[in-house]
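Notebook p. 47: complex prediction with fe (ii) ion.
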Amino acid sequence: MLVHFVTDESTKIPAIRAMLEPQYCVEPQLLGVGNQKISADGVLIVDADLRKPAPVEALKLVLKDLHCVSEKLFVVQSHLHHMVAQAFALGATAVVSRPKEVIPKLVQIEATQKAARPAAAERSPAITSGAAAFASMFAAIREGKLFMLSDAESATSEIIHSIEEKGLSAWLDDVRRYHQGTFQHCLLVTGIAVGFALDIKFASADVKRLGLAATLHDIGKARIPLAILDKPGRLDADEEAIMKRHPVIGYELLRALPEVSPEILDGVRHHHEYLDGSGYPDGLTAPKISDLVRLLTISDIFAALIEQRPYRPPMARQDAYNILCSMNGKLEPSLVKAFRNSALRG
Ligand SMILES: [Fe+2]
Ligand SMILES: [Fe+2]
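Predicted complex, structure tokens below:
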């Protein structure tokens, strides 16, 4: 497999060659030095300082109209928040924190490419723009800036369009193949909620409302430390208490924007509430939980179960649906029943 290695430091080239050759053929490029257009397929690895404007601008030129490479792996030292967001905004499909983590990723990519259907080789533009919208919203919030609601609205519209055209299964396969972590989760929840709404023949304004609530539902996670957000395995009690603040944080962030409707605010604050009162943050019971929230909660749990994580394989859709069915008293049974078709066959 050909590996295009793009960096802003010449000393990194012999190091990556020593690590990857002869198993992989490394084609290096030093940013800003007579950059050539990449025309052969393979995997792109970027190891550059994304805090500096010069390498970022040079990198944008290399990445512009780059269609022959679908996997773009960025090395972001120490997983600094804003650099991770910058990497995804530039088109990263995965981020690692050290060069040596590149090898297991390449092995995984090779295996996936071998198994992939030819139709999955081309990434949906809705995924690219959806992930870029999540990256810019999360980066703006982390830096204490206002984010553009219009970014969330246009990302939602593209996701709706993609699912209307290709169906939910294609969306789930593509998202899990190309994205990780919180962005993957938000892309999945939005796709699942939209697929559900389309399947049960919602009016288009209601599909949009639910889709936007799903796009924004975990926006409060932008203020949760990455060490907790991306921790492999279970959180301890203190970490869990911090994580459970995200619905209220998201609600407070969005409440400041006059264009955000009360239904969206309700969805963001209450997507972890259960009908029996055992959820959080407000311990609401059935009469206080709206239909939009009930749909969003089902989509959120299903998405979390079928996510692709580096430390565990995704759960089969049938198994995830069975878990929803077993959550007695917590979810609306008639909606779980109505979700069946979209969850298993959409
Ligand atoms: Fe959440
Ligand atoms: Fe969520």
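Notes: The beta strands are 2-7, 25-30, 43-47, 71-75, 94-96. The pocket of fe (ii) ion (ligand 2) is lined by residues 185, 189, 217-218, 300 (CB under 6 Å).
Next step: compare against the earlier run before touching the bench.
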